[in-house]
């Protein structure tokens, strides 16, 4: 503003400097459009993507936006087109204008239903007649596409923004999914809404392009039952990483909220995970290729140890039973190699998995056959049966427990690496399974044996350590595990009190530990809306935290030891 030395920096973007508050205030109107924690970048490999405009701390909200389009999921029985609740034939009410069934007159008047209502009146000429409730209905397969097409006339600025999004039309050509859409979406729309073709000149390619945009940029929104789908504008530019640095949540009104999960340096891409980060490398990469049309080369995929976690590795099967090595693919970026995909015999000829410590190697095909067998065993496992889970963990991971197994397994050399994704899957289920019997969570935990309680604690701690390293942006999973751990600490402390009588020092230590766990829950889940299970856990954690503070206060007043 004045050319004087400027020591004060804009806290929003960190890129503008001022001599003082006064000139910063005067400049705000001009600076505001440029002041954002994110900016757009582009590369030949990734297309457009967002980067941090300045150094960002963990937990900063970088994006919050309402959807460009939202719609029911493609495969669904008839649902209300405003609230997405499943409809029953006896209670559904046809919209008086267009005939689409809705749950109430209020929902029929809801602006969310306007796009298809208008298109049905203007481009079809007669009302819809949906029957056959209770089974997936083909008419809903086209709804997201129809709502996108409705933007053309009604909201041309949004339509233009939608068309700027990636559709991968070329890569989708002749894929089974596109062939299915050609029949189930394109032909349906052109037949049911003929004036779209005859008057508006909408072509098959136009519709397929919209299908591509929905496939590449769509998010599943868990706020309704069944979950619906939505496409966002700016958030669509977030690139993918299997170790994402941003976490996404949805607000009650359907806004997408993106915040950093770890500190992010200025210029670094902001990333979310497009696939299931709890799958192994080969399966994640295969899924990304099939659904988003790129082979991921992120830091996690490129590192065969998956950041030191050995998440996809096997233990060394060589003659030396003490070899501490892990068997991993020679080239983790080789295409294919998920246990569920490909022909093990064909893949096996081309690639090898190698021990990290000795010269043992295995053809990829043999590794995949082994893994496929474990995968089949896992798919048959009843995860509600704690004993069956423990046997699985002992059989394939060599896990030892602070409790006896009823069915003793002969101890063999474990086949899977300590953190292998199959073992992690079962440990996650078991950590939550412990304590679910009984009327409520409190009763459930009280019914656990000391050994089971200790095992639950060990599982939560191990899983949290792994998640922090491998998937820091999995806020929901981490938050729920911290909540489980807090419950274990509370129960353990109650048992200690019963066994050993009141001990203010031990009580203070365990209250402080519980407070630490609950603070983590609140921090991780603070963007979760109250209607989701995680939002309910957040509410409970906040209540428990308040009670804890009161307890710590009471303890301080009674014996003067607790920090306040
Ligand atoms: C939701 S869009 C992201 C925005 C897109 N880059 C654009 O220019 O519109 C997803 C697409 O971006 C590209 N992409 C995202 N993350 C990537 C990554 N880590 N490596 C390579 N391509 C990536 C892929 O083409 C993917 O299908």
UniProtKB/TrEMBL annotation:
Residues 1-35 form the MYND-type domain. PROSITE patterns: SET, ZF_MYND_2. GO terms for molecular function: N-methyltransferase activity; protein methyltransferase activity; S-adenosylmethionine-dependent methyltransferase activity; zinc ion binding. It comes from the Eukaryota. Keywords: Metal-binding, Zinc, Zinc-finger. Pfam families: SET (PF00856), zf-MYND (PF01753). Residues 36-275 form the SET domain. This is SET domain-containing protein SmydA-8-like. It comes from Megalurothrips usitatus.
